[in-house]
Amino acid sequence: MPTSAASCPDAPDALTLSLRENVLAGPRVGMAVPDQVDGNPVSVLATPAKVAAALAAAGFTDKCRGLLTGGVTTVLVVGLCLYCGQGYPDVIARLWPMLGQFNPALVLSAPVTPVALSQARGRLPAVVLRKLFEAGAGVGDLTQAGGSLLFGLVVTAVDGTVFDLAATDAIRGRFATPAGGRFPQARVVTLVACGTRRVLAAVLDSCAVSEQALWDRLVARLTPGTLNLADRNFFSMHRWRTAAATGAHLIWRVKNGVSSLPATVTATLSDGSQRLRLRESDAMLARRRKTTGDPHAVRLADITARLVTFTVTVTDEAGCTRISTFRVLTTLLDHQAYPATEIAQAYAYRWQVEVTYKIIKSTVRGGNRRLRGQAPDLAEQEIWGLLAVYNTLVDQAVAAAVDLGIDPDQISFTTVLRAVRDHLTRQAPCPGCGHRPDQADLTAAIIAGPRNRTDRQRTAPRTTKERQTEHTRNVTYTITITESNLPRAA
Question: What does R_g of the chain's alpha carbons equal in angstroms?
Fold first, then answer.
């Protein structure tokens, strides 16, 4: 955004003088660089203070003070994740004019070569990008968006996904290739705030490590005042007790088989839900003993929970119906304060974590595209970078939604992605003072873009086989509370 001549004196301002003085003084360890946020679009992705904190938390120090310091390399890696599908030369050219605040020597230097960036990435540990993501993951008001609260609790959901990686020998040595698969894969399990779809925490490992094992590393991130949703593959007595002990409330789906839930019904409540006594089964005990390496581990104490069993009838415009049965276990024991129908409806919010993965993998990264890193650390760099970029885009969507007083679901993520990219590269700085568009300009660009439609109820085939015979169609959903087939206490 150009400024008036009055605000653009020919003489350089204080910041420019400071940068130039730093450059002329030569490389110095610990050089003080102003943490200029206003006026530099790259601050949307990262600021010097945040990057420096991530480098310090990772224990990284530059061995030599060249152009591609750890800070500059970190921002360029994040830029590669924002501009997925574009080559090193394009990303370097776009971001280089804005990186002087991360290394003053860049002010008087031409952009580096792609080879130099590739070598610098190899020197940067993946943990730096992880620390950058983690530093911003828990920031922000999780209650400001519609759908954030249910029963006065902040709604979160957990689930896992995988990323296809380059099929190099080095990556195959670190990340397994699934049976029948062509490429090694990394597995990521995340904790997502359903109202904003912000990723609050994540763990990463090879796809050989199960979602359940990764969740066991993440469960401590649950906090009191939240309501956590999980799919049916996460339940076990030990996992349930551990999650409930964090003080968070739970609504977890469990499998429908009689023997899959080690419980007996102690009471049927007036809303159709049932109070249960959970008792660790012999199979669960044996599996826990094997997992922990303690063959003499004692059986866990019984615990009380509440079960809501319900059917969902999906009816399309032609009148065709499909009925699915769900069972969800919850720590919300008061059936009058938390009616069964509302518990059943609440479970639908778990789908927000699936939408999160779709956005990261299809919109941000681009569909059917493997990560570009050819080494294990480079692949991990990109995954953490993608998560950091995704959260940045979420923040912009929420800012626009709050400004309009609407639900973030109505903000198109494609619009946000394009607006952030344009914000970084398409509006040249003022030649006199270096002013660039600020946060208000970015929010205005997002608000001016097209919106999502949230008033539609649609269903689409999920598997490859279903896609051959089915299509996306408009439907209505009907929830009916039913009784489970679990045994009753004597």
Answer: 26
Tokens representing 175 are 């990340």
Q: In 317-444, at which residue ranges do the beta strands (DSSP E only) sit? A: 321-330
Contacts with 60 (C-beta within 8 Å, 6 or more apart), sequence order: 70, 124, 125, 127, 128
Mean pLDDT of the chain: 86
Query: Kind and range of the H or E element at 202?
Result: strand 198-206
- What are the tens digits of pLDDT across the range 156-180? 999 999 999 999 999 999 999 999 8
CB 191 within 8 Å of CB 213: no
Q: What is the pLDDT of residues 72-123, one digit of tens each?
A: 999 999 999 999 989 999 999 999 988 988 998 888 889 999 999 999 999 9
Among the listed residues 274, 296, 283, 292, the one whose alpha carbon sits nearest the alpha carbon of residue 237: 283
Q: Are 41 and 98 in contact (CB under 8 A)?
A: yes
Specify which residues 316 forms β-bridges with: 475
| Longest pairwise C-alpha distance within the chain | 89
d(CA 198, CA 58): 23
Q: Residue 372 is encoded by which pair of tokens?
A: 């570009």
Cβ–Cβ < 8 Å for 34, 101: yes
The stretches of 124-235 forming alpha helices (DSSP H) are 126-137, 169-174, 211-218
Count of residues making up the chain: 490
CA geometry: angle 195, 48, 105, nearest 5 deg: 145
The pair of structure tokens assigned to 474 is 């408009």
CB 129, CB 202: distance < 8 Å: no
